[in-house]
Design brief:
Blueprint: H1 2-26, H2 37-47, H3 50-84, H4 86-100, H5 108-115, H6 119-143, H7 147-155, H8 160-194, H9 203-212, H10 216-244, H11 246-257
Length: about 260
């Protein structure tokens, strides 16, 4: 219990200090683009009502979930295939290096030509940008599987899908989760960017509408909400990661103690 309390204290200490500094530094500000934090906090419940949550927040989360899930499935599947076979990796590597160097926001107009301006376009944009850290980390994780484990599995007749499920993916899972963590933050950014193009709802659309109508405190509430959503999603991801990779964190803790 004490360790949990200390971890919570360390987690919240810096955000609390930053909020306090922002509160004090902005207090009394008359700059229209830099309103006091007190004004932003006061406006928050008036702006983000139940209706706006249903009309803007949930559609954004739905698009993020769809794009992120698509990127996760494609990244892990392709990364496992490419990482498992040297010739496939040699053929695909130049193309992958080229494609991952293209900024995903640049692809938005191109994707709009093929997917339209609806949710499909936004999901594809999120997936197109989020897939790279998952794919590349999966490739490296699969390549790094201990050769002794591979030979042991082969000697016991563990091949095919059974070998993939019991040896390759568990060994590569720490790096796969590292890619999934990076992809989550990229997905949130691309969610906002995709909603700034030909959208009628969503967090990105709403923040831009506030900015264009000079509702600056309302715009800041949207930015704060995006930060809070990112924080909550990160915490949830860490909980899932610790549960799935409990064996890995346990082995690391045991090795440090020894």
């Amino acid at each position: 219990m004490r360790n949990v309390a200390l971890r919570l204290l360390f987690t919240l200490a810096l955000p609390a200090v930053l909020v306090a500094v922002w509160w004090v530094a902005s207090d009394g500000s008359r700059d229209v683009y830099w309103p006091p934090l007190r004004t932003i906090v006061t406006a928050f419940p008036d702006v983000w009502t139940g209706e706006r949550w249903r009309g803007d927040v949930w559609p954004s989360l739905y698009r993020l979930a769809g794009g992120y899930a698509l990127a996760a499935v494609a990244g892990v599947a392709l990364g496992t295939l490419i990482g498992s076979y040297r010739r496939v990796r040699a053929v695909c590597e130049p193309v992958l290096e080229f494609l991952r160097a293209v900024p995903p926001p640049v692809l938005v107009p191109v994707i709009m030509l093929f997917a339209g301006i609806g949710d499909t376009m936004k999901i594809v944009v999120i997936a197109a940008g989020s897939v790279w850290p998952i794919l590349l980390n999966t490739v490296e994780g699969v390549r790094a599987v201990d050769q002794v484990m591979k030979e042991t599995a082969r000697s016991y007749g563990v091949t095919g899908f059974a070998r993939l499920r019991t040896v390759v993916l568990p060994s590569a899972s720490p790096q796969i989760f590292a890619g999934l963590r990076q992809a989550l933050s990229i997905g949130i950014i691309l969610m906002v960017i995709s909603e700034m193009f030909a959208a009628s709802n969503g967090l990105g659309f709403t923040v831009v509408q506030f900015q264009r109508s000079f509702a600056i405190p309302d715009m800041w509430t949207g930015i704060l909400l995006l930060g809070l959503l990112g924080f909550v999603l990160s915490v949830l991801f860490q909980l899932v990661e610790r549960r799935v990779l409990g064996w890995y964190h346990g082995s690391r803790a045991a090795s440090r103690r020894s």
